[in-house]
Specification:
This protein has 495 residues and is of the alpha+beta class. The protein has 16 helices and 11 strands. Helix 15 (446-471) runs antiparallel to helix 16 (477-493).
Length: 495
């Protein structure tokens, strides 16, 4: 399985409703949210999620789109440098993916943001097309206000994608590919920004300090503190312990000391292990053997089986709880995804057979591709179904004297019916593909492709139940009739 981490940073750290709306936009693409870090002083949110490459690209686009709708940089002030509503979007390899593949994902996303959202995009780090753009600080130099005056006039500030002028509210976005980094902040016990600037300069690599370390002084006005915000671009070259020790030494020269530290977002486990090794001065320590969790993972004791079994248990447990979501609509989409996956397996095994009639190959290849595309659609629909329910509940929770409440509830009901109808339609299409592939498949996988068809039909029938339950509340007779007609046609195709 290919797995990518994305860490979009967007310029909102004070309005939790806006932050959640943007996070929900990412979730709707079928990725797994790992962390949401909000900072009011920085006026910034760092969102971390993982997923398959295509899902991550889609999630990042939806984050950019929603940030464009909600954030106006003309009214944004914070301590962290920024040039965009979505300021930076890095793709990071996690499993089965190279840094080169992540760079290609960055290009794909950057082109789409530029083309569809009309936001200028700069490729940076391992995706950079210009050497000077490997360093994010160079890309973001001048921030939103400075870039506004230079883009379109200074050739060096011409974006890689999108218009050669600033977006009036969303600014510009940096999209790139990089390895894992550590965002590590040192908070001092004074509020001397001159001292903070000197410490940050001498701590970072560009100022002659620690290798692979970036640093900037941040004014924590509400706390009357200076923060030295650092980024460890290679924690193996400069560990967090080295940053703390050198930061403390430089602070002492100004009569200050470090009182607390912060980790922003996620970090590799090894970075903490390295800190412990440095701090404890351990001899002959083997983390693979001597860290309990590492050892348990190595022998499979934590997973209790293979990854797919653990995933299956996780889905079943989520379905079994008393939350309203995931419910029948999500179950229908998951069944459809399973049906497509099983169909792909049966077709894939047939294609590998040495006894395959070559005349069948083109049709089997087409079926395999179609089932894969529909499986990806089902993955998104399972999230869309949960989001549709949340949308209805949000409308329902509006005060009863709110004049907009009835219309919003009706819109939410129609949407809640459209999502499972889409699931049923995709299931019907996948079932048709599987039926065509079944006589071409080898005898050894006959039961598998039959099971795939059973799952796809079940997906359509389950989705239909969720369409019907919402139809009863739709007051627009014409809309209800249209939905029912499309559902009837879809189910007829599954007979």
């Amino acid at each position: 399985m290919k797995l990518v981490e994305c860490v979009p940073n967007f310029s909102e750290g004070r309005d939790k409703v806006k932050v959640q709306t943007i996070v929900d936009a990412a979730k709707s693409a079928g990725v797994t949210i790992l962390d949401v870090e909000i900072d009011g002083d920085h006026h910034r949110c760092v969102l971390s999620f993982v997923g398959e490459p295509a899902a991550c690209v889609e999630a990042c686009f939806r984050v950019a789109q929603k940030s464009l709708e909600l954030i106006d940089l003309n009214h944004h002030k914070g301590e962290h440098p920024r040039m965009g509503a979505v300021d930076v979007i890095p793709f990071i390899p996690v499993a089965g993916v190279t840094i080169e593949e992540c760079a290609a994902l960055a290009e794909k996303l950057g082109e789409r943001i530029g083309r569809e959202l009309k936001i200028p995009v700069y490729l940076y780090d391992c995706a950079a097309r210009r050497p000077e753009r490997k360093d994010l600080a160079n890309v973001r130099k001048g921030q939103f206000e400075g870039l506004k005056d230079l883009i379109g006039k200074d050739e060096t500030r011409t974006p890689d994608f999108g218009p050669n002028h600033i977006h009036p509210t969303a600014g510009a976005t940096a999209v790139g590919a990089r390895q894992q980094i550590v965002n590590f902040n040192l908070n001092l016990d004074n509020h001397d920004m001159v001292a903070g600037k000197d410490i940050a300069k001498r701590l970072r690599a560009s100022g002659g300090g620690l290798p692979a370390v970036r640093g900037k002084e941040i004014d924590l006005a509400a706390r009357k503190q200076v923060q030295i915000s650092t980024v460890l671009t290679d924690y193996k070259k400069s560990s967090m312990k080295k940053v703390v020790d050198e930061g403390a030494r430089l602070a002492a020269e100004h009569g200050a000391k470090i009182v607390t530290t912060e980790i922003v977002g996620l970090l590799p486990r090894q970075a903490l292990v390295d800190f412990a090794l440095d701090a404890l001065k351990l001899e002959n320590f083997n983390p693979d053997v001597q860290i309990l969790e590492n050892r348990l993972e190595a022998v499979g004791a934590l997973s209790g089986g293979s990854d797919w079994q653990a995933a299956g248990r996780s889905v079943a447990e989520a379905m079994a709880n008393t939350d309203a979501t995931p419910g029948g609509g999500s179950a229908a989409a998951i069944s459809g995804a399973m049906g497509c996956g099983l169909g792909q397996m049966a077709v894939g095994i047939t294609l590998k057979s040495k006894k395959l009639d070559e005349a069948k190959r083109p049709a089997l290849i087409a079926a395999h591709k179609s089932l894969g595309e529909m499986r990806a659609t089902f993955d998104r629909l399972s999230e869309d179904d949960a989001a549709a329910f949340d949308r209805f509940m949000a409308a329902m929770s509006l005060p009863k004297d709110d004049a907009s409440r009835p219309a919003k509830m009706q819109d939410a009901l129609k949407h809640a019916a459209e999502v499972p109808l889409k699931t049923a339609q995709i299931a019907a299409g996948a079932l048709a593909v599987a039926k065509q592939a079944a006589p071409l498949a080898g005898a050894a996988v006959a039961s598998d492709i039959n099971c795939a068809m059973h799952l796809l039909k079940a997906a359509a029938l389950c989705a239909a139940e969720n369409v019907r339950i919402n139809l009863g509340g739709i007051k627009d007779a014409g809309a209800a009739q249209d939905l029912e007609g499309r559902l009837t046609k879809t189910l007829a195709a599954c007979a």
